[in-house]
Amino acid sequence: MVSAFTQGVINALLYLEQPEGFIDPKYPDYVLKLNKALYGLKQSARIWFYTLKPILLKLEFTVLNSEACLFINRKTKVIICLYVDDLAILAPSKAIFDDFVISISKDFKIKNLGVIKDYLGIDINLNISKGFIKLN
């Protein structure tokens, strides 16, 4: 399983109480120091964003001034929309998309879910042969 949040690098000291059912009987008052973010942690989305952003900037993406979760590479014409732990990647060709996937895979484990069909509650109908995208 590929998990975005657990790839987020924590730059602060975060501690967690021992979870119920997993309390060490020898050290019941000890806490756990987190090295990576977890799902359910309030800071996880923020940690993931600040881990991903410098990698995208290194890959020549810029952030839209009007929307901090949209990244554009003007050279390759790749657009990335980041929502929590999901990336919607739009590229002008499959070859350019594949090149981006190879580049980002050097830093993160990713899972390609194929052609986008829905995102943020929007149904997406991509008809490449007719050259249009229909959003519902």
Q: Care to describe what's here?
A:
The chain is α+β, with helices and mostly antiparallel strands and 136 residues long. The protein has one domain (5-135). 20% of the residues lie in helices and 26% in strands. It contains 2 helices and 9 strands, in the order E-E-H-E-E-E-E-H-E-E-E. A 4-stranded antiparallel β-sheet has the order 3-4-5-6. Strand 5 (78-83) and strand 6 (86-90) form a beta hairpin. The protein is elongated. The protein starts with 14 loop residues before the first strand and ends with a strand. 10% of the residues are buried. The model has no long low-confidence stretch (mean pLDDT 86).
Helix content: 10-25%
Low-confidence runs: none
Structural Rg: 19 Å
Q: Please outline the major beta sheet.
A: 4 strands, antiparallel
